[in-house]
Amino acid sequence: MTIANKKIQAPTPAPSPKRYLSEIFPLEIDRPNFQCFRLNDKIERQVGNQFAWRFCQKFSEIENLRGIIVIWEKGDFWVLAKPNQSMPTSQQYKQTLKKIQEDLKEDIGDRFLSIQWVRNPEISAYIKAQLAVRILQMNRAFSRETIKSENQVEVKREVNFGAETFELKGVKSSAIFPAIFLTPRTDFSFEGDLADFFENHPFRQNIEKLLIGLKVRDIEKNSSAKIVKLVGTIGEHREELLEKATGSVSKEKLREAPDEQPVVAVKFRKDSKEFHYAMAALRPCVTSETAHLFKVEYG
């Protein structure tokens, strides 16, 4: 540590978690055009987030509703449209909810769900920040820059971002404002998808040793997960996976995948449920523990 050109011997710090340089940007939503509703039955956060994401996707398929975003927080769904954009009609909400229930039937079972409007909702700074993050997610606002490529492994610079709030204290009062944080990070990943990695790897005969515990990314959403087990083959699960696939690229690759190709189960968090994926829908990530599988040095 150096202060005013004088060197000071600092004490050895105690071990601490990794810290990254981040920037926090305050934001505001001009002329907010929003609605708030909840479902008639209580749902858990994981299911609430699934519903919110699928509302965004379903609305994006309807011309006059494109750009409308939805988030879930503490039992409430918040819907944000552009300032002069019309909100979905009651019938559109009802039809969209029905389609989502069909998509998630395996997760939620046979439940009668309906929309209950929240009157005069008070939107918090954190909700505004979450809405801003969802806009960035849906529009894929940040590109990834490749800085090196070797043995089909790409080293890319990317941005992690999320919702944040900050407080400004005045003489008599203080106020909470919405913000987003941006954190640059370096990502090591395979150029192709998991199917390419598996089919061309010399260890493919020992499939469990090769794949179990491997960190991967959902190609459509760029979400990180870990493979926890094998659940069968494409031939056994193709129709089920096609029904659940939301992206056109994923569906096309599912139709083209050979019957004997394995299907994997992944978890996005340690305590989350398992999700079944075709290999073509995932991209392998390179970590310090798995770098040897890709014949590269990590770091």
Instruction: State the helicity in percent bands.
Output: 25-40%
CATH architecture of the largest domain: 2-Layer Sandwich
Q: What's the CATH class label of the largest domain?
A: Alpha Beta
- Reported by name, the CATH topology of the largest domain is Alpha-Beta Plaits
Q: What number of domains?
A: 2
Point out poorly predicted stretches. 1-17
Strand content: 25-35%
Bulk shape: globular
Overall SS class: alpha+beta
Number of strands: 15
Largest sheet, order of strands side by side?
14-13-12-11-15
Order of H and E elements: EEEEHEEHHEHEEEHHEEHHEEE
What Rg do the Cα atoms give?
23 Å
Largest sheet features: 5 strands, antiparallel
> What does the average pLDDT come to?
85
Count of helical stretches? 8
Helix and strand arrangement:
Blueprint: E1 2-3, E2 6-7, E3 23-26, E4 33-39, H1 45-60, E5 69-73, E6 76-81, H2 90-103, H3 105-108, E7 115-117, H4 125-139, E8 145-150, E9 153-169, E10 174-190, H5 194-199, H6 207-211, E11 215-218, E12 224-233, H7 234-244, H8 248-256, E13 262-267, E14 275-278, E15 282-284
Antiparallel strand pairs: 1-2, 3-10, 4-6, 4-7, 5-6, 8-9, 9-10, 11-12, 11-15, 12-13, 13-14
